[in-house]
Amino acid sequence: MATKKQNEFAQVYLSEHPDVKEMYINPKGEFFTDESYAKNSLEKDKDGNVIGKIQVISREPVKSEKESEKESEKESEKESEKESEKEPEKEPEKGSKNPKSK
Q: What distance, in Å, lies between the first and last C-alpha atoms of the chain?
């Protein structure tokens, strides 16, 4: 399993290189952009059997503008709900005079 740092590196690399669709990491932590090179980097035991596996890191899906707008709207709604919970509206007391009306 790739570490958080390895995943971050791979996502940055993939975002900077749109032509690369996936990155491959061998158990030593070496990165490859070609699956064949990654597979050939795996060690073999004395019988020729491959030791370890390649991990594939794919590009994180890019959100469309509409999805981003919806998420920001939901976040702002949640924030406004939290604000309204913190400060309940004060109702005027019965019998109190409203200074604006005479």
A: 74
**Global pTM?**
0.56
The label of the residue with tokens 């290189």 reads 17
Q: What are phi and psi of 55, to 5 degrees?
A: -105, 135
Residue 23 DSSP SS3: strand
pLDDT digits (tens, 9 = 90+) for 7-41: 999 999 999 999 999 999 999 999 999 999 999 99
More confident position, 89 or 84: 84
Alpha-carbon 48 to chain mean position: 39
Instruction: Give the residue ranges of DSSP H helices in 17-64.
Output: 35-40
Phi-psi bin for 95: left (phi > 0), alpha (psi -120 to 50), beta?
left
* Beta-carbon-side half-sphere exposure of residue 54 (alpha carbons within 13 Å): 21
